């Protein structure tokens, strides 16, 4: 059965100050279709989404919705005809309740003009129920909910608005496995009801689970589109990057008889994590796997001195340490690269140079604090070269770079501090495949140079390919510690989900 | 061509330079006495204290975290009163002046402790010290000005060095140059911007966010201390209300000068230009015999108009 067309995009182009973000892109979304858009960062996916959602206006080209030519002056126009979008970094009101957020801007009023809370409560209950969420959350404020739940509420809001086209931008980035399942079931139901979904994700496995059609963007151009049964992971990667490369880089396992550089013993913080013990040797890559919210970052920030711990001991280079801030840790050679680069990593409006040198200013200044400009420039340029950061000028704001290059800047800043122990928190989160591969290679190279690396990651293939040993956490507890040789996807996932099966678990 | 003009006008420093020229022309038309050497010198003397506390205010705001120092006026008053007591107790006036700068730093450090280290909201913390310092200055003097400064001390506010007002050459210019150098060339200056743009990223990069902000409140206090000395020399008395109104005026010149109220953007040259503009308007209107109440209204309108107009140009470049 040929489905009828919902949205047609014809020859859309958009440029930002000389950068062609979209170049003559056309695509068609049918009713009841799940249409995935893939591409490296900077390929133009977000720009395309924003144009469809009315948040940006194209320079040229046209949109056709249900057979009628449409032009959006703002997001409201798009929303009125039934296009809803849930952004990757969702926008909502933290201190308002779930009901209020669901009906935001579209509150139901009684004849007197006062708010009709009864209808809204009923409506919101239905909406969250459809997403498999407990109904009692609707009177909680958004800030009381977990990240994943917040995301599901926002998707519930869009569905409740009776959208005909739902745009989801990396919806699973912050969802747990279970929440992802809920989302996928909802998507299937919506599809049956004739709702179309435009789905953007870096996770190819997901796309193969739910999409009907896949469009590949590269450098603002549409490269190809595939029906799902014509596509394969290899084909997509080739199409996205324009080149072939292997995913199966694996670190060589070597005997490591060095003295541990870091030993953490029985570290606990009430309500966050309990009794965490591990050690890591120079040149070792220790994977920290767990679902979002398992407490991995909190443990590491305690080692970095940015978050407190209640009890336990941290030994570094065979001495007990009590770092009380990041500067303390940095001086000792411990560097933590935080996850959310926009909020914890980048100085967006500042120059690339300032972003790279932010950590080493103390080391390149004289006694009264005057920065040695030549040294700064030299070190920054060296780092840009060795990490292959692509930028027009080092004085351009870091916000002008693509996501992958921004991540390299954050990494580069840390490497300039010459760490002995490098803690990377989701270093490849939300970046394109090519840069991801580069960062993986970089991690190997650093381990070769005898740097100890703790890799916090939610991507199992990444952990399995890179880590010598893998520590698994579930809701604040350590549920497993395995050498890579004894680890497989299923075992690790079971541990991370808290499905204890002592016989299968090789706790060393 | 049109784009070029818009681009120039969207740069706050150029915008202020043009505004300055416009103000000068308008004021010369209103008052024939406006553009002569004597009134220019008087204006420079008049703007000196505002320049000092305006610079301090700019730094505090630049470092973000909703930073603001409402207590600069009260710090001027209290430091001035302390200065008066020291001189009346027989201390050498220049030694007393040096100690007054120290007093300013200590008063500022109280803000630094409550706001930067303990995490009190800056608006509340410095509102508290604004009242406390102001009241203390009144209590200590019973509201009566302290005189008794030696005749020679008048030189600082009324004398000339190289034919220019001595408070500008000896205090304001060096203070500005030192601060400008710190902002442009030192790691501390860079930290101020980085902390103002993203305090979380700064913290994770090993920049001591709290300490940077603490130091800025101390600097604001030190500049208020310098202001107190100049005011005492100007009035040849220490009045317990010397600094009143300085808090709001210092914020005015900072924001007119292009310091982003949310931190991270702006520079001290803008602040100085704003001080010159604000001082010229006040003096010009005075010379034209316009009631002081109207002067404040004009200042308000100029602030709103200038910042809005600049915003229009900025948004056009995007």
Automatic annotation (TrEMBL), chain A:
Which InterPro entries would you find in this protein's record?
AAA+_ATPase, ABC_carbohydrate_import_ATPase, ABC_transporter-like_ATP-bd, ABC_transporter-like_CS, P-loop_NTPase
What superkingdom does the record give?
Answer: Bacteria
Q: Name one GO cellular component term.
A: plasma membrane
Keywords assigned: ATP-binding, Cell membrane, Membrane, Nucleotide-binding, Repeat, Translocase, Transport
Give the matching SUPFAM superfamilies. Answer: P-loop containing nucleoside triphosphate hydrolases
Q: Does the keyword Nucleus apply?
A: no
- Where does it localize? Cell membrane
Record's bilayer topology term: Peripheral membrane protein
- Per its UniProt record, what PROSITE patterns does this chain match? ABC_TRANSPORTER_1, ABC_TRANSPORTER_2
Q: Which GO terms describe its molecular function?
A: ATP binding; ATP hydrolysis activity
Q: Where is the ABC transporter domain?
A: 7-244, 253-500
Q: Does the keyword Metal-binding apply?
A: no
Among PANTHER family, the record links this protein to: CARBOHYDRATE TRANSPORT ATP-BINDING PROTEIN MG119-RELATED, GALACTOFURANOSE TRANSPORTER ATP-BINDING PROTEIN YTFR
Record protein name field: Monosaccharide ABC transporter ATP-binding protein (CUT2 family)
Q: Which organism is it from?
A: Pelolinea submarina
TrEMBL record, chain B:
Alphabetical keyword list = Cell membrane, Membrane, Transmembrane, Transmembrane helix
Return the protein name.
Ribose transport system permease protein/rhamnose transport system permease protein
Compartments annotated for it: namely: Cell membrane
Under Gene Ontology molecular function, one entry of this record is: transmembrane transporter activity
- Give the record's GO CC terms: plasma membrane
**TM segment ranges:** 12-34, 40-63, 70-87, 93-118, 130-149, 161-182, 214-235, 255-281, 293-313
**Lipid bilayer topology:** Multi-pass membrane protein
Lineage, opening ranks: Bacteria, Bacillati, Chloroflexota, Anaerolineae, Anaerolineales
- Source organism (scientific name): Pelolinea submarina
Keyword match Cell membrane: yes
Record keywords: Chloroplast included? no
CDD domains hit by this protein: TM_PBP1_transp_AraH_like (cd06579)
Q: Which InterPro entries match?
A: ABC_transp_permease (IPR001851)
